[in-house]
Amino acid sequence: MRTRPLLLSLLFVGTLLVLGAASIAVAAAFAWPKLPSLDALTDYKPRIPLRVYTADGALIGEFGEERRTYIAINDVPEKLKQAIVSAEDDRFFEHSGVDFSGLIRATLLNLIGGSKRQGGSTITMQVARNFYLSREKTISRKLYEILLALKIEHNLSKEKILEVYINQIYLGQRAYGFANAAQTYFGREVSQLSVAEYAMLAGLPKAPSAYNPVTNLPRATLRQHYVLRRMRDLNYLDEETYQQALSTPMRLAIGRNAQASAVAMPHAEYVAEMARQMAYDQFKEEAYTRGIKVITTIVKADQQAAYEALRKNILSYEQRHAYRGPEDYVDLSNIESNKDEALEEMIDAYPDLDEMKPGIVLQASRQLVKVYMRGGELVDLSGDSLRFPGPMLSDNAPQQKRIRPGAIIRLVKGSKNWLVTQPPEVEGAFVSLDPRDGSIHSLVGGFDYNRNKFNHVTQAWRQAGSSFKPFIYSAAIDKGYTPGSVFQDAPLNFSSEETGGRDWNPQNYDNRYEGPMSLRTALAKSKNVVAIRVLQAIGVRYAQDYVTSRFGFDPAKNPPYLTLALGAGSVTPWQMASAYAIFANGGYRIQPYLVKEMQDSSGHVLARVTPSVAGQQAERVIDPRNDYLMDMMMKDVVRRGTAAKAMSLGRSDLAGKTGTTNEYVDAWFCGYQPTLVGVSWIGFDQPKKLGSGETGGLLALPMWIDYMRVALKGVPEQFMSPPSGLVKVQPTIEKEGDDFIYEEHMPAPPAADAPEPDPAAQSEPTT
Questions:
Q1: What sections of 539-623 are H helices per DSSP?
Q2: Whole-angstrom distance, CA of residue 765 vs CA of residue 767
Q3: How many Cα atoms sit within 13 Å of 646 on the Cβ side?
Q4: Cα(259)–Cα(270) distance, rounded to whole angstroms?
Q5: Which tens digits make up the pLDDT trace of 454-503?
Q6: Which ranges in the chain are annotated with CATH 3.40.710.10?
Q7: How far apart are CA 265 and CA 274, in angstroms?
Q8: Domain 326-421 is in which class?
Q9: How far is it, in rounded angstroms, from Cα 666 to Cα 115?
Q10: What is the location of CATH 2.40.50.140 in the chain?
């Protein structure tokens, strides 16, 4: 009974095949001359994104619609080729572009099965479709695809076709080509993968979304097992290798199944964006498709150290101030247990902020808070873990800020247990460079690039506070003063007649005055009134010209008022790093630079920076004797002054200056070792008080110390040699170490030439 319908079906199929063959022949006769040129294949140039690297080869950024890494066919591992043809086209090396037996088999299965489950497309046909055709399922489009496949096979070798396929095919997660997919899914080069991983990738072209191991690992595993089975059946794998591959666990680099050990991209988002802008300025839209490589001057270990130091110290600041309450609330009314899968779905809406993990509060009291974390981990918070958020556990806490069941809170891993934290409102910046040539070693433009893309290193114009004083003191030394020159540390008063506006009574930070003291001690103790008296003595217009012409500051943003001595002008962390580099390198102005080279996809150099080096091409801007004396004075700041915490690094070759602006609005530390300058800053985007006592020494200096502890590890101590033209003398009034003066006698300092203070400017306390 069943034979007759089957025979009729076969007869019908046979008729269709005859008609199909005739149709192909007719179509070929008319369409073949009109087929498109194969230039896109014969001269294959894949769209490769712009990539940004550290100086030591770590990828830190990728820009372009298609993530693709080109790989030549000779570099493709043999097992990957075998996995691909096993999954997609096992007769690839035998047919002439169209596997007619496969087409017949697919047609029969589709007709008998009543659906279009089988496509019968070869790898060559897929290449034709990807380059020249749409994915619409019509007979005319299929015939055109067949003709194109035949033409491709006639003009290209099998190896070239397979190479194009391996580099062009889309494999999910924005990954194009198998080389990029290996990095995307497994975090490794394609040559480093196992047979099981090759099979997982080879299963993706059929349906990248359906067989994506990140979103559907069970289904992807079924597809992988099919590929492995085909490899065994085709004798590409022996039984032992096949069984071993079946039992190999998938160690993904992304998604829920990602391994903590996967190689992570260094956090250098601000650097990558700066490099992208430079590449775009030069190459426009082609920058995103030509496979251009931008090699920066960033050092991977330094960059990570700077990133971690900034975040650690900003979070420490948060712990010293009020908890603002949960960031959101979710409805737990339908949750049946602490292991309810709906909890995982809820927490998916709150991505990790790096070390700051989201959690859902399940129970809350002043003694115990139970939290559900991503992956099903349950955390109990008690004791010291609840000290910071304690006020929001009180019955008197505002309902919209109270920690209660359903609250979304953030946790960080402490040394012993989890701690409650919160996304900060305060911002920060850190930049370091080599003072010998200006190469940037690290740059962190803010707490989190994804939350705030404003680059505080290059774009934030802030008051420098007392970190600006070394430039004023350098101007004084240029006028003939020495570290031993004595000034009065006593209160100053300027009447409204003198200022032209209101009375001005600048004060020292601690409101203490110690009488006559040397410039060396005044800088170490950061005495405000001494700095103002020094500026009066040398003249503010001279000082303005000196700091702008020698150190590169903008004169319009640093006007000639007495408040210049207190850093009331505007500077950026980038400018401060460049200026302090002059003190570190012996008195030469260098130009900071971030990108040292741009290459095309073949490694040919498109652009290269040749920096001016201190002591060679760089311009000398301050006298070597001046530089030596300033270095000595800023070493005192570290040894016995406001930056004494830096002595915890166990080095004697560190120098720098803390800075805190009026009302604790900006906190700075600018410091250096002869091979490395670092500048740290913390403040709010909309300037406001950081809090009483939040000085540069408390906020910014620890960030600098944490960075330098990593960056200077293994670097030997280095010291400047006294230049000729200086003589050593005993201190005149204080036992504070040896002082130096100019050997030749300089003219007497001129009378003060200070204009009235800016009535709009305010004095600043200093650390």
A1: 540-551, 573-584
A2: 7
A3: 35
A4: 26
A5: 999 999 999 999 999 999 999 999 999 999 999 999 999 988 777 667 88
A6: 461-587+622-742
A7: 17
A8: mainly beta
A9: 69
A10: 326-421
Position 753 pLDDT exceeds 90: no
CB 767 within 8 A of CB 694: no
Q: For tokens 């707490």, name the residue.
A: 447
Measure the CA dihedral 100/106/111/112, to 10°: 120
Q: What tokens were used for 97? A: 């572009």
> CA-CA distance, 319 to 143, in Å (whole number)?
68
DSSP code of 608?
E
Q: For the chain, give the mean pLDDT.
A: 88
Classify 461-587+622-742 by CATH class.
alpha beta
Distance CA 564, CA 554 (A): 12
Could you tell me which residues are beta bridge partners of residue 571? 462
Angle at 121 between CA 45 and CA 126, to 5 degrees: 10
Q: Distances in Å between the alpha carbon of 544 and those of 478, 532, 550, 584? A: 13, 13, 10, 21
Active-site residue numbers?
Answer: 88, 466
Q: What token pair was written down for 460?
A: 């934030």
The predicted-structure confidence for 724-741, as pLDDT tens digits, reads as follows 988 877 655 554 455 555
Tokens of 688: 């406001």
- Averaged over 386-399, what is the pLDDT? 93
* Whole-number Å distance between alpha carbons of 399 and 386: 18
β 50-53/418-421 pair status = unpaired
Distance CA 153, CA 160 (A): 10
Query: What local confidence, expressed as pLDDT, does residue 29 receive?
Result: 52
Q: What is the pLDDT of residues 611-635, one digit of tens each?
A: 999 999 999 999 999 999 999 999 9
pLDDT digits (tens, 9 = 90+) for 72-103: 999 999 999 999 999 999 999 999 888 776 66
Strands (E), 609-712: 619-620, 655-660, 666-673, 676-683
Phi, then psi, of 422 in degrees rounded to 5: -155, 150
By three-state DSSP, how is residue 107 classified? helix
Find tokens 């402490």 and name the residue: 414
Q: In the structure encoding, which two tokens stand for residue 610, read together? A: 């040749």
Alpha-carbon gap, residue 331 to 720, rounded angstroms: 65
Contact of 752 with 536, CB cutoff 8 Å: yes
**Backbone torsion region of residue 177, taken as left when φ is above 0, otherwise alpha when ψ lies between -120 and 50, otherwise beta:** left
DSSP percent split of the chain into helix, strand, coil, nearest 5: 40, 15, 45
Task: Work out the number of other CB atoms within 10 angstroms of the CB of residue 596.
Answer: 19
Q: Report the relative pairing of strands 50-53 and 293-296 from DSSP bridges.
A: parallel
**DSSP state letter for 494:** B
Report the pLDDT value the prediction gives residue 90, as an integer from 0 to 100. 92
Q: Quick one: which of 407, 410, 387, 386 has its CA closest to 398?
A: 407
Q: Is 17 exposed, middle or buried (0-12, 13-18, 19+ CB in 10 A)?
A: middle
d(CA 683, CA 697): 14
At residue 156, φ and ψ (nearest 5 deg) are -120, 150
Name the burial class of residue 549, with classes exposed (0-12), middle (13-18) and buried (19+) by CB atoms within 10 angstroms of its CB: exposed
Strand 427-433 with 676-683, pairing: antiparallel
Cβ–Cβ < 8 Å for 54, 267: no
pTM score = 0.84
In 684-730, the DSSP E strands lie at 726-729
How far is 39 from 33, CA to CA, in rounded Å? 15
Q: Is the separation of the CB atoms in 700 and 464 below 8 Å?
A: no
Strands (E), 493-650: 515-518, 588-589, 595-599, 605-608, 619-620
Q: Are 69 and 293 in contact (CB under 8 A)?
A: no
Q: How far apart are alpha carbons 704 and 655 in whole angstroms?
A: 12
